[in-house]
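Case study 2.
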Amino acid sequence: MNPWEAEEPFGTWGSLGALAHGPVVLARVPGIGVGLRCVFAFPEGLKLWFVAHCRDVAVLPENPPPRSEEEAAEQSRRWQEFPAAPDEPVVHVTVDGHRQRFPLWERGDHTAYAVGERHVSCELRVPGLPADGCVTVDVSWGPALPGASTTLRLDGLAQVAASAVPLVEP
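Prediction:
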């Protein structure tokens, strides 16, 4: 099994986890935002809960034409770094030197479309606890929201994970 897939190890089903990090806006421009609601710690790993919202999908062009050769080169570089459709939010998560790409629409637990708007909410499981207590999250949403990087420092993570609240008494 790919450790980055959404399926959880059986151990996390018996626990509510413990709050390791609270809400943070990862990237925002007028009308668009990508955030992290929270990080839950379990002895087996982490769960990250992402949300993304765009108020006006007209700002998400399908394939915007570059205005110059320099812009074309930059666009090409950016799309190599954050490969996805221009109208799709993408998250890269790096833990202990391992980087993984996650298109949020493909993983959406809840995706909503209102007239002219898009919203997605999903959780991502990270196996194991980062040795250095850091999780780096890179987000982008095509050319409308350039790439932004945030490093979460999860101090005392082993103790937090050990305090995960059991769902059922032993």
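Residues 10-166 form a domain with the Immunoglobulin-like fold (CATH 2.60.40).
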